[in-house]
TrEMBL record:
Subcellular location: Basal cell membrane
Gene expressing this chain: oatx
Pfam families for this protein: MFS_1 (PF07690)
Domain Major facilitator superfamily (MFS) profile: 97-493
InterPro entries xrefs: MFS (IPR011701), MFS_dom (IPR020846), MFS_trans_sf (IPR036259)
Record protein name field: Solute carrier family 22 member 6
Signal sequence, start to end: 1-32
GO cellular component: basal plasma membrane
Membrane topology of this protein: Multi-pass membrane protein
Residue spans crossing the bilayer: 146-165, 174-194, 200-219, 231-254, 260-279, 316-339, 351-375, 382-398, 471-491
Organism, as annotated: Takifugu rubripes
Keyword Aminoacyl-tRNA synthetase found: no
PANTHER family: SOLUTE CARRIER FAMILY 22 MEMBER (PTHR24064)
UniProt keyword annotation of Metal-binding present: no
Keywords: Membrane, Signal, Transmembrane, Transmembrane helix
Amino acid sequence: MGFSDLLQEAGGFGRFQWMHVTLISLPGLLLASQNLLNNFVSGVPTHHCSLPANYSLPDYQVTFGSCEKQLVKAFIPLDPSGNRLDRCRRYVEPQWHLLVTNGSANVSHLKTEECLDGWTFDHSEFLATTISEWDLVCSLRPLKQMIQTIYMGGVLTGAIIFGGLSDRFGRRSVLIWSYLQLAILGCSAALSPTYSVYCIFRFLCGMAVSGIIINGVSLKVEWIPTKERTLVGTLTSFFFTFGQLILAGLAYWLRDWRKLQVVVCVPHFLFFAYSWWFAESARWLVLNRRSDKALKNLHRVARINGKPINQLTLEVSFVLTVISVLFCRFATSFAYYGLVMDLQKFGVSIYVMQIIFGAVDIPSKLLALAALTYLGRRYSQATCLFMSALVIFANIFIPPDMQVLRTVLACLGKGFTSSSFTVVYLYTGELYPTVIRQTGMGFVSTMARTGSMAAPAVLILDEVFPALPSIVYGGAAVLAGFFASILVLAVTH
């Protein structure tokens, strides 16, 4: 009797599966917060150079008062756009004449200097972020994106390490450990005294997130009958979608990076507590010569499902079918995080953009479900990748002042990459046989995390040419779409 037949004998997709899938998927509500946390923890407040510590107001300017808001024009020049104060330069000498009502002067010849006394940050949008706490602005601006790259490096490392460990020690054991690691180290990150310490904690949190994702997916897949996997896989992905909306609400409510860091990590202590109820994969137990334990788990599942079984024999057969989806995983992750990790560029409240970007996942998941049902895995993958590339390229040609249209196209692009994520996660989980599923998933997750690591770094290219990041993101999606199309043709013929 094959394992699929054993699952049917034990009740198919019954009460146990519903409970198992729901409890494993529940942490997804906060995994979205981990992946997108840097948007808020490292949000960039409006800022300018702090005024010199000691200055005296000329007698003829006393009528203007000593309010810093009034005096700032005498110390801080406008940036090249002329619409806001320069963030990184100030006048060497105060220019009091600029305070005269309706006064005008040619200031291009005036000497400026770097912010020798630090920066003054506006706290209307963020009360405190890593940017304002450690002055990660101007020459240190790339360090903001470095936090996300280091975190994704942890996710990549976790995919490699925890993928191999779970094939050796079991999915359940590594999953339980990952919950505990994220809970403890995530909360510890909120106490970080320096930038370097925070980056170390974020790296270790990334490892734990990877352990939760790949082991959670495997535990779900290996206890669900084949015909229910598409529907269940799509529906459970909504936990990640709703998690994006929760993140927007929490960030808007707290507005302090340390408090937000704690709030999104503390619930993992609860997930750790109830994860001991999970059943280890019977497939893995059989392949590791622990058939007695596998049989015990199957009887437990049958009992919960109300299907008592008198006799069970364990015989698992599988066919090794490995189709490379490496570049599809890389490009999907690369384009996805390229879109969602720079919400401040749209000129709309970052909290509103997070809600919009989270909400757009709802129709995209339903689109993925329909595509998987009627088109199949390969056609769905290729279509989602090509459509995301098309939208990303289209946004390059939209003028910056047409913010509404640019935002709509960005949401469409995010929706298609999200659909591609749904397809590729389900596809990958089904491709590998049980004996190497975790190692295989760890391998393809490595490519995905490489893409997510590279995505924040590419954003820096906008200083060379504003459209360059979009060209890179869209180009990667096109190449992956062609790769998926080749797989379609290869299988068809």
